[in-house]
Design goal:
Blueprint lengths: L18 H12 L13 E5 L2 E4 L5 E3 L14
The chain binds zinc ion (ZN).
């Protein structure tokens, strides 16, 4: 296994595609679970692009395409 401390899951790409775009991929894929804005449980899942669903309280809401937090933006 390669060293993935810095690059995380994007280590699978090796040196390809450039550091900027790999960092962006990392930011998008690293956040698997986030807090539900209704029940405050870390149980929201991405139902489809921009649609998030909480598995505990069944709340469905819109958010970012890959990141459920609305205020957070993926920066370059
Ligand atoms: Zn919830």
């Amino acid at each position: 296994m390669a060293h993935t401390k810095k690059v995380g899951i994007t280590g699978k790409f090796g040196p390809r595609y450039g550091i900027k775009i790999r960092a962006r991929v990392l930011k998008v894929t690293a956040k698997k679970t986030k807090e539900c804005p209704y029940c405050k449980k870390k149980s929201i899942k991405r139902a489809s692009a921009g649609i998030w669903e909480c598995s505990k309280c069944k709340a469905k809401f819109t958010g970012g395409t890959h990141v459920p937090i609305f205020t957070e933006t993926v920066e370059d």
